[in-house]
C-alpha cells in the first residue's frame, strides 16, 4: 500500500458516500486510475466495506459501557467459548483481547441501566468461566473518529 492508497482510504473514511469523481479530485488522480486503485483495495481486503456512522443516542441506545473481563482460566475451551458467545451478542459492538490485568474489553451499547443489568446477568454471567467484570460507563465523548492518521 502506497501513500496514494492511504489518501484514498482516509478520504473514504471521512466521507464514504463521495462519488469516484469527487474521490479522484480529492486525491489528485484521474477517475479511471482512482477507481482501479479503489477496486484493488476492496479486493485485497484493505477496505472491508462501507457503513453509516449513526448516533447511538438518536437510534435509542444512549448508554455506552466499556466492560473489562478477566477469565478464570485461559485454556483453549474457555477462551473459545467466551469469544464465540460474545460474537453473538448484538449489544457488543467491539471486543478486544488485552494484555495486563484484564483479558477482554467490550464496547457495549444499551437503551438503559435495566438493559445493561439484564445483559450482564443473563448473557455475560451465563457464559461461565469469568473471574471478574469491571464496568465503566461513558458519560461523554471528547473525540470519536474513524479516520486513520496519515503516515509517511
From TrEMBL:
Residues annotated as domain HTH asnC-type: 1-62
UniProt keyword annotations, A-Z: DNA-binding, Transcription, Transcription regulation
UniProt keyword Translocase present: no
Annotated protein name in UniProt: Lrp/AsnC family transcriptional regulator
UniProt organism field: [Roseibacterium] beibuensis
